[in-house]
Design a protein that fits this description.
Blueprint (H helix, E strand, L loop, with lengths): L3 E4 L8 E8 L2 E6 L12 H4 L15 E2 L2 E2 L2 H19 L4 E5 L5 H15 L4 E3 L6 H11 L8 H6 L2 E5 L3 H4 L1 H12 L3 E5 L5 H4 L3 E3 L6 H14 L5 H7 E2 L4 H6 L4 H8 L3 H12 L4 E5 L1 H4 L4 H14 L9 E4 L6 H7 L14 H11 L12 H9 L5 E5 L3 H4 L3 H10 L2 E6 L12 E4 L8 E4 L4 E5 L12 H11 L11 H13 L18 H5 L4 E2 L17 E2 L17 E6 L15 H4 L6 E4 L1 H7 L6 E5 L4 E8 L7 E5 L32 E8 L3 E8 L10 E7 L2 E8 L14 E7 L4 E8 L2 E9 L8 H6 L24 E3 L4 E2 H11 L4 H8 L9 H15 L1
């Protein structure tokens, strides 16, 4: 069997994959040892991509309303409604909302249609939510959106600083590179309000107050100046420094003031500053904790200021490094998928507009930047945008103040959704749904965080009536009257045009160019191997600004808001290790579902005690925008007064965990990126009278309805975690037909029901008011057995059953209890020994911090 080289569908690391088809909709996934991003390694999500390629829940044919339609009818309707809306209300009355899940070729045609033919810049992307502050900061400092670093810089660094990034969970392959460098002697500093798994393994963790990053970095810059480590020659020759720059950052930049603002110990702050000052080869990686802020652009520029002023840029092992969240966020930036850019790293200056219009031979060109995501959906709600096309994303879940976003979608006269899945929270508002290709069916290119472009290749044929996104957009454009301009037959045609635009009348003012990458034919496109554009930017000290100099940007720390009377806590949001965005893909993979199988609110024990919140109980998190339920997890990894919740759960997967309902619809005034990391909030315990779970082969006859209902994918079926305050007997209606056996313990208020079909377990329902519930794993395994065990109502195997505990290593499906037993029984002394004994931690390594913590706990216990 021949393996197909392709690229992972998840984060911006852009790992190479070797995919070998082993059957109908079955594939073996391996890391590509020849890909420069990952060198053969994959994280847990990439490792289990093969579990997500089935057709479960797929949208396989066009839908108009609730009825199946032909492609001709659906596309004719979309083209007519957009054309009529533009004719009546002008080009700014329509909008596209696209995604970093699109391939570059998809992005290119969508951007071209909106900006060059419809004539509006109202196309924005969900990448606005994750890295647009980095884009704005790069443009202010460098003159162009350039990430100067590469992953190889990590290999050369002596100090690695992670700011606002739980890299061990969110970019595990990058983290393994970091760990390898640290094992060789480099030091690691983590700057994050939470003590994450990444922070656990750091030489120094600064648990700063949310939103105080500018003060921290201005203080570092002042320290470097006073310590005499500014690169005066580099500043004089290559950087523009405003006359009042040093005076504007001076106030509050002494170490004691910074420590007070950031709420960190002076000794720790001084240690960081001293370490940075004496380590020229420093890489500072930053991610959502920096970007997703109301001052995100200033926070980015505060980091860039330090690197520019100390000359730590354009040199091996000395770089600022923005690491992106989505697989093709960078490709979207390159083609102009953001409303704030035109195309090919050009802005809306008159000469750029004329240049792009000439190249496209378009009838019009967008005159100015369009509406950024938050403003775009606000405009929909206000009735100014009357037709919207959403591609490959789920804004009804992921946008801030998602309740208002839903109201806007419901009120919009015409909504089109191109998606992989048949039922999404956003798709529920669509007048037309168009079936798009999924990973494994897509064919095109993506760009990762260090500017490496890779091919994503189709593994399977397109199922049903599914079409690639580029073709769907092209077909609509042709129906709107622009057949010649959108006469693409294959992705390679679009790629070659994208390459030509990147070089068209580009005299070197823009560093983004794909020169020499589009001259071959289709065979060259098919054979494309990973390459990085841009070489080694800034190594010669020249920047893409009119005078060739970078800019120091004076930024000041904004006053940090005091706790509000009704909203005294600060809410932070983010990712879990084994889930991705709104789980339309990872939610299908049983091996990914069990690490964090419910949405948790993490809260400091002191706050929980004061508010009467119990570990494992339910709690309602509220903000001025909305509220949602979570399972409470008490942890001193949280700063007192702060909460953390995950972003992944939707109405399709839980009655709680609707995190998008909570953040404010406020954004950074420069980048337009929403501030997801510091929302005023409150929390309260929620009492229940019963709890339980339902395990069922396939799906239940109807969705369970209770106060708390969370679906978890398991082998051969689904697990539903339940809790409520009403009559639990209504859950019985969810059970399938079959032979029913039941046990009742009235003293504990416990009911246990098993349903058998031809001797096999079809479902198991366990409910209790005061009793204990068994572990789920053995019962889940019974779904795959030919004959149900006689002890099914006991919830365990005959004899002494073994509970593996919650999953720690998702790559190899290894639980907590299994690991602890191995440590004790085999006297394992380090993470490498655990890996050699049972395999945990030997693939992506994202569980290594947890293994280290377990070793520490067991050593302490033994002592």
């Amino acid at each position: 069997m021949t393996s197909i080289p392709t690229t992972c569908a998840y984060c911006g690391v852009g790992c190479g994959i070797r995919a070998t088809v082993t059957g109908e909709r079955q594939v073996r996934i391996e890391g590509d040892p020849d890909h420069p991003a990952n060198r053969g390694r994959l994280c847990s999500k990439g490792t289990h991509l093969g579990e997500t390629v089935g057709l479960e829940g797929r949208l396989l044919h066009p839908m108009i309303g609730k009825r199946r339609a032909t492609w001709d009818k659906a596309l004719d309707l979309v083209a007519r409604r957009f054309r009529d809306t533009i004719a009546r209300h002008g080009p700014d009355s329509v909008a596209f909302y696209v995604s970093g899940q699109l391939l570059t070729e998809d992005y290119y045609v969508a951007n071209k249609l909106m900006k060059g033919f419809i004539g509006s810049a109202n196309i924005d992307t969900n990448s606005r939510l994750c890295m647009s502050s980095a884009v704005a900061g790069h443009i202010r400092a460098f003159g162009e959106d350039i990430v100067p670093a590469t992953y190889a810089d990590i290999d050369d660094a002596d100090l690695i600083v992670l700011v606002g990034s739980n890299t061990a969970w969110c970019h595990p392959i990058v983290y393994q590179r970091i760990r390898a460098r640290c094992d060789a002697g480099a030091r690691l500093v983590v700057i994050d309000p939470r003590r994450t798994e990444t922070a656990d393994e750091a030489d120094l963790h600064l648990a700063l107050r949310p939103g105080s990053d500018v003060a921290l970095m201005n203080g570092l810059l002042a320290w470097c100046r006073d310590a005499g480590v500014l690169d005066r020659a580099f500043l004089a020759d290559h950087v523009s420094v405003p006359d009042d720059f040093w005076g504007r950052i001076e106030a509050g930049s002494d170490v004691w003031s910074v420590a007070r603002t950031c709420d960190v110990p002076v000794a720790d702050l001084r240690r960081f500053y001293e370490l940075f000052a004496v380590t020229p080869r420093t890489v500072t990686l930053f991610s959502q904790g920096v970007n997703q802020s109301l001052a995100g652009t200033d926070q980015v520029n505060a980091i860039l200021n330090v690197h520019l002023a100390t000359g730590r840029i354009g040199k091996p092992g000395a770089q600022p490094f923005s690491i992106t969240g989505q697989p093709n966020a960078m490709g979207g930036r390159e083609v102009g998928g953001l409303a704030s850019t035109l195309a090919a790293h050009m802005d809306f200056a008159e000469d750029n507009r004329a240049r792009v219009q000439r190249f496209w031979a378009s009838p019009t060109i967008a005159a100015r930047p369009g509406l950024k995501a938050v403003d775009l959906f606000r405009s929909i709600g206000e009735g100014r945008i009357k037709a919207l096309w959403v591609m490959a994303t789920n804004p009804a879940v992921s946008m801030p103040d998602a309740g208002r976003v839903r109201e806007a979608l419901a009120a919009c006269p015409f909504v089109v959704v191109s998606d992989v899945m048949a039922d999404t929270d956003t798709g529920a508002f669509a007048h037309v749904r168009l079936p798009a290709a999924a990973w494994g069916e897509k064919d095109g290119t993506v760009t990762n965080s260090d500017r490496t472009i890779s091919r994503q290749r189709a593994i399977f044929p397109l199922p049903g009536e599914v079409r690639p996104d580029w073709r769907i957009v092209t077909d609509v454009a042709r129906r709107m009257g622009w057949k010649t301009a959108f006469s693409y037959d294959r992705p390679a045609d679009i790629w070659r045009e994208h390459v030509r635009l990147s070089t068209y009348q580009n005299d070197g003012a823009r560093l983004f160019t794909l020169a020499g990458r589009g001259g071959g034919g289709n065979a060259d496109y098919e054979a494309m191997t990973p390459f990085r554009w841009g070489g080694a930017p800034f190594g010669d000290g020249r920047f893409p600004t009119p005078d060739g100099r970078a800019r120091l940007v004076p930024v000041r720390q904004r006053p940090l808001a005091a706790p509000l009377k009704d909203w005294p806590l600060t809410l932070n949001t983010g990712r879990y290790r084994d889930h991705w965005h709104t789980m339309t893909r990872t939610g299908l993979a049983p091996k990914l579902a069990r690490h964090r199988d419910e949405p948790l609110v993490e809260i400091h024990p002191d706050d929980a005690a004061r508010l009467g919140i119990a570990d494992g109980g339910l709690a309602r998190v509220s903000t001025p925008q909305g509220d949602s339920l979570y399972r409470a997890r008490l942890t001193d990894a949280q700063r007192p007064g702060e909460l953390f919740v995950p972003i992944h759960w939707t109405d399709r997967t839980s009655s709680g965990g609707r995190t998008g309902l909570l953040p404010r619809p406020l954004a950074d005034p420069i980048s337009g990126q929403p501030g997801f990391k510091a929302t005023p909030a409150a929390i309260a315990a929620v009492a229940t009278t019963w709890r339980g779970f339902l395990i069922v082969a396939g799906e239940p006859r109807r969705r369970p309805e209770s106060l708390w209902t969370t679906r978890v994918a398991v082998p051969a079926g689904s697990l539903w975690e339940l809790a409520g305050d009403g009559d639990p007997s209504r859950i019985d209606a969810c059970l399938p037909t079959g032979e029913r056996i039941e046990a009742i313990d009235r003293a504990r208020g416990t009911r246990r029901i098993a349903v058998l079909a031809d001797g096999r377990l079809a479902a198991a329902l366990f409910l209790t008011e005061r009793g204990e519930l068994p572990a789920r794993d053995w019962l889940i395994a019974q779904l795959s057995e030919a004959q149900a065990a006689p002890t099914i109502l006991a919830g365990r195997a005959p004899g002494a059953g073994v509970d593996r505990g919650p999953i720690v290593c998702a790559c190899f499906d290894i639980g907590l209890n299994t690991i602890v037993a191995a440590i004790r029984d085999r006297r394992l002394m380090n993470v490498a020994a655990i890996g050699a004994a049972i395999g945990a931690g030997t693939n992506c390594g994202s569980c290594r911090p947890a293994l280290t913590r377990l070793l520490t706990q067991e050593t302490t216990h033994a002592a």
